[in-house]
C-alpha cells in the first residue's frame, strides 16, 4: 500500500520529523550541497518519493530546518529578555544562549550556522531570513538602549551586534562541548571580552558572565523549558 500524499509543509507526526532529523544530521555533517534525499531515504528504509511527498524539495527541507531553529531562538530570547532588565545581563544572556545551542542542539546548530549564508538572498528563505533579522534586531535594540542609559560606551550598535554574532556563528568550526573547555567557561570568556569592550564595570561583568550566576541560570531555565528544546538529535556531528 502506498503512503498518502501530504502537501509539503504539512505536519504528519513522527515519521516526518524523523526525516527532517536525519536530513539535519546530514547537513551538519557534510553540508547542504552533499546532503541528498537518496542517502536520507536509504538510512530510513524508505523511498525518495516518500520524502518528496512530505517536503517537496530539498530547498524546502533546509528552509524548514532554518525556520524551526530560529523560531525556538526567538521564543527563548523573548523569554529571557522579559526576566532580565539590565542591559549587560541581556547581552550576556544572548552569549550564554549562543554557546548553549552548540551543546543542547549540536546538529541543528551546526546545520544552521554552516548554511546561514543561504539566508542572504536565496528564494524560499524569506521566513527564516525575517526571523534571523528579528533576532539581530533584538540584540541591536539592547545595545542601543544600553548606550542610551549610560550602561555601555558610545558606539555603533549594529556593528557591535555583527561582531558578537561573528564570534558565535563560527563556533561550529572549532567548538567541541565535550572538549578541553566546558561550555560555561567558553560563554563566560566571551561575555567578559564583549562586556569589557562595552565599558561594563567589573562587578556587573562578573555577575553577568558567571557560568553559575543568575544570568546563566535564567538562560538555562528558558532553554530547557522552551517548546521544541532538545533539537533534532544529540551528539557531536562528524565533519
UniProtKB/TrEMBL annotation:
Keyword set, alphabetical order: DNA-binding, Repressor, Transcription, Transcription regulation
Alphabetized Pfam families for the sequence: TetR_C_24, TetR_N
Matches recorded under InterPro entries: Homeodomain-like_sf, HTH-type_TetR-like_transc_reg, HTH_TetR, KstR2_TetR_C, Tet_transcr_reg_TetR-rel_C_sf
Ranges annotated as DNA-binding: 36-55
Keyword Cytoplasm: no
Stretches assigned to coiled coil: none
Protein species of origin: Actinomycetospora chlora
Top-level taxon of the source organism: Bacteria
PROSITE patterns reported in the protein's UniProt record: HTH_TETR_2 (PS50977)
Annotated HTH tetR-type domain residues: 13-73
Protein name (database record): TetR/AcrR family transcriptional regulator
Lineage: Bacteria, Bacillati, Actinomycetota, Actinomycetes, Pseudonocardiales
Amino acid at each position: 500500500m502506498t503512503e498518502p500524499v501530504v502537501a509539503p509543509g504539512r505536519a504528519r507526526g513522527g515519521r516526518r520529523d524523523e526525516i527532517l532529523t536525519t536530513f539535519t544530521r546530514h547537513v551538519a555533517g557534510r553540508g547542504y550541497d552533499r546532503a541528498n534525499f537518496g542517502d536520507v531515504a536509504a538510512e530510513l528504509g524508505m523511498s525518495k518519493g516518500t520524502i518528496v511527498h512530505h517536503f517537496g524539495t530539498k530547498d524546502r527541507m533546509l528552509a524548514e530546518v532554518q525556520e524551526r531553529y530560529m523560531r525556538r531562538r526567538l521564543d527563548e530570547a523573548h523569554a529571557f529578555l522579559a526576566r532580565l532588565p539590565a542591559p549587560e545581563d541581556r547581552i550576556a544572556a544572548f552569549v550564554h544562549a549562543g554557546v548553549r545551542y552548540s551543546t543542547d542542539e549540536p546538529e541543528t546548530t551546526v546545520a544552521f550556522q554552516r548554511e546561514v549564508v543561504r539566508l542572504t538572498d536565496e528564494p524560499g528563505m524569506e521566513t527564516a531570513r525575517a526571523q534571523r533579522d528579528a533576532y539581530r534586531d533584538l540584540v541591536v535594540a539592547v545595545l542601543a538602549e544600553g548606550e542610551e542609559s549610560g550602561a555601555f560606551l558610545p558606539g555603533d550598535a549594529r556593528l557591535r551586534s555583527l561582531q558578537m554574532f561573528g564570534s558565535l556563528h563560527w563556533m561550529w568550526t572549532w567548538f567541541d562541548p565535550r572538549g578541553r573547555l566546558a561550555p560555561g567557561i567558553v560563554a563566560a570568556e566571551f561575555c567578559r571580552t564583549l562586556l569589557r569592550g562595552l565599558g561594563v564595570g567589573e562587578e556587573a561583568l562578573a555577575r553577568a558572565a558567571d557560568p553559575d550566576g543568575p544570568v546563566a541560570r535564567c538562560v538555562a531555565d528558558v532553554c530547557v523549558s522552551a517548546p521544541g528544546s532538545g533539537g533534532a538529535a544529540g551528539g557531536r556531528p562528524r565533519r
